[in-house]
Amino acid sequence: MRGFIIYLFAFMLSPLLWRGAGGEAFAQQTMQDDPIAAALDSLSTQKILDKLYAKPSAQKNKYNYAPDSIPRFEDFVYENRLAKLDAASPFDLQFNATVKPYIELYAIKKRSLMCKILGSSQLYYPMFEQIFDKYNIPLELKNLAVIESALSPIARSRAGAAGLWQFMYPTGKLYGLNVTSYIDERSDPYKATIAAAEYLKDLYKMFNDWQMVLAAYNAGPGTINRAIRRSGGKKTYWEIRPYLPLETQAYVPAFIAANYVMNYYPEHNLYPDVPRKTYFELDTVIIKEPLSFQQLAGVLDVTVEEIQFFNPVYKKQIIPAGGNVLTMPKNVIGKFVTNEEEIYAMLRKQNEEQKNLALTQVKEVQITYVVKPGDRLSTVARKYGVSVSDITTWNLVGKKGLKPGRKLVIYKTEKPIVPKDSVLANKKNEATPTQQTADKKQLAENISSNAPTGTTNEVTYTVKQGDYFYKIAREHNMSVADLLQLNGLSKNAVISIGQVLKLK
Fold first, then answer.
1. Closest Cα partner for 207 from 223, 192, 230?
2. DSSP-assigned letters across all residues of 56-119
3. % helix, strand, coil for the chain, step of 5
4. CATH class of 62-268
5. How does pLDDT run across 479-492, given as a tens digit for each residue?
6. Domain residues of the chain, as ranges?
7. Of 52, 308, 371, 434, which one has the greatest count of Cβ atoms within 10 A?
């Protein structure tokens, strides 16, 4: 358990540590993919992309509308268009006065949002269709995610539903979606879509009607069964609709409107925003060792925000160990696979350095001491290894001195506890006599080279990597308080490499 905590601490250290010893050159050196493999990846999707983006000028403004034009149509036009969709669908895609306001909401009032949704559909819909086809589910149900989440995998409702398909925690758990401190598989587009397919199929087994399935997806099967009883045993959505919650009464009309707009968007002068990537431009790789988004961004020459966009399942920008998946554009995955072993080796080294640094951090704890009869400042200071001036500064002790019962605040520096099997504990034993001599020689050179001429009581010391106040004070037979006082530093001062300190 302690090792796990140390590992987490190392991950949370400042990004500057990532560019510390052994990591700086690696962080600055972005990985390059094999050129032949990269070319083959590009060719494998070129045909699909050429078809998807064929004749962009023809795709835009198909009906020669003015750029700011917002077309409106008579009811019979909506009715005829929905009738065509209904003829090829197992859903009852009828047009009525309840459906019309939702068509106008998507096509007129929420035009900017619809363009974003249309762009996102090029990323998610091919995957939806592939999974729904496998489960023998009507492909029209892909548009259910439009009204559930606006095709955003990070969407979260006020009730706590999450992801593209807005699973509540219990339902997600029931269908195999794991939620931990580090991952939320409700936000995993692929796994959540499989769970949605299984849930929709189970609902269909209950009601044997896809319109009723939609209502049950929104309100839960128990609510639908109660509405059936109140309606006197009616079995269709429109018959039980008056007995449903208001939100569910609006749910199926919104689904019909979403199907209409996702099929007839050019007629409304709506066109997809350019997506970051399409489904066919992405690839995945299983991560063997824990990695942070910050580390991946440094070696793959991408931004943390881009990694987050394609991997919304990870809640804290860390990919834990245990066979988790990284999803990125193919060219980025290619770089990772080509340099995989080098990346892991370097990150292991960096994590070890961060762990060792975490182990050697000097802690400063706050102690409350209640003054006893006969206590003097000097005895209290000696008891906790601090100076009298420190106590008077921390507690504003006046000329009258200490009174019994008064509470004093004392800041005490604690020596780090280093496990016996740690690298630092064994460093002295592992070092050869030659190495020990070299270390002592270097220490002497650091001191003597900085010693001012003609001074015997005071020398200077240049801070090296791995130094901290307690270590420097111990090596020069000083207390930390004296070292800080001699250099005019506060107890909260931070040490830095290259800093020159005065020593007695």
1. 223
2. HHHHTTTT---TT------HHHHHHHHHHHHHT-SS-----TTTHHHHHIIIIITHHHHHHHHH
3. 55, 10, 35
4. mainly alpha
5. 777 888 888 887 66
6. 2-43+277-359, 62-268, 363-414, 427-503
7. 371
Tokens representing residue 152 in the block: 């955003």
What percent of the chain clears pLDDT 90, i.e. is strictly above it?
47
**Coil, helix or strand for 328?**
strand
Residues 6+ apart with CB under 8 A from 324: 183, 286, 287, 314
Determine what percent of the chain is predicted with pLDDT higher than 70.
Answer: 76
In this prediction the pTM is 0.63
3-state SS, residue 188: coil
User: Is domain 363-414 in CATH 1.20.1600.10, yes or no?
Assistant: no
CATH number of 427-503: 3.10.350.10
Tokens 């009581």: give the residue.
457
The residue assigned the tokens 């016996």 is 420
Question: Helices H, strands E: what count in the chain?
Answer: 25, 8
Q: Do the domains 427-503 and 363-414 match in fold?
A: yes
Could you tell me if 363 and 9 are in contact, meaning their C-beta atoms sit under 8 angstroms apart?
A: no
